[in-house]
Amino acid sequence: MAVVNPIINIDRERCTTPFDCKRCLRVCPAAVFVVLATKMIKGVELDKKEPGNYAVLPLYRDKCTACMKCVNVCPVEAITMSMPEGVSP
Amino acid sequence: MCRMCNWLGDGTVWYKNPKNYANRMYKLREPGAQGGFRGDPQNVGAGLPEAIQAKANGDLEAFHSIIKGMNERHATQPGTQVVPLRDCIELVMDMGTPFAAMHCICRKTARGEEETNINEYSCLGVGTGMFKWERWPERYRGGVEFLSPKQTAEFLEYWDKRGMVHIAMQEGGDFIGGICNCDYPDCVPIRQRVDYGLNYQLTKGEYICEPDYERCNGCGECLGRCQFNALKYESTIDKPNIDPMACFGCGVCMTACNRGAIRLVPRRQYPVLANVW
Question: What ipTM score was computed for the predicted complex, to two decimals?
């Protein structure tokens, strides 16, 4: 059976300053996440401490083993994981 | 011959060809093409996010078909190649082009690293383009630090000892714009080649590493340094084993060996490996 990875959902309402926090980026054994600026003004990224200026994306999802380290480390409980439909955990 | 040498080598190794460091190369631009920094490096090669989603959902057929398409489509795109420290230092000393330490954008996006001064910078910008760094303030976040050739060599040696692979980067205008110090999984070219088979992203080096079992005492200092899954400990003989087909020839294992038991051998010396890039 083909290997299927979990769906990682990041609640942007809760996760607002990921580039300042970066706990999930650091803890992930497979380095699944990337942090990107959501906007730039005149080619410059904005203050990492201001909410909404950066976002974390689970770009390399195919490496995720659902170890839940990121879910547990997140201080604002913004990360949730679920298996795709029809796949038993 | 690798595709980079075929394309830019003029009969020699492309990163040893002075033409590829020349100022005029910097001005070449395809008609209508956008200049400067082209945005987020983790997005290099549109199509990869779709491929990853397909793989994560268990659809390997779709994954392989997207990757195959990308490899074909991008076969003439600017590329990168692994360069061992020895060659890096040779070209740093010979090329007479500006060198500047700068932050690593891959480490920034993958692990949230913020390198803000010379003690933290881990990437090396190359060429006259570095004088214009202020035009792309975010690409050179935190500024740059210009280095003399001697300082540049020390900079590369430091990162080599730390276990980083050096990669010559070709930028949009067919010139060599950087020599990065990279590791898996943070480095985008290494990761995209090793994990997803996007071979155009990173070309193997001109050499392979070979252990000399007469000298090797099996101390294991080299273990754990390989970023390409080529070097492993072979318990049967109590010595490390390097898979020549998997080796990228970065020489990072060689730096760790204090008995001189690993050497670089030109890839082209072997009829089969001469075609493995």
Answer: 0.90
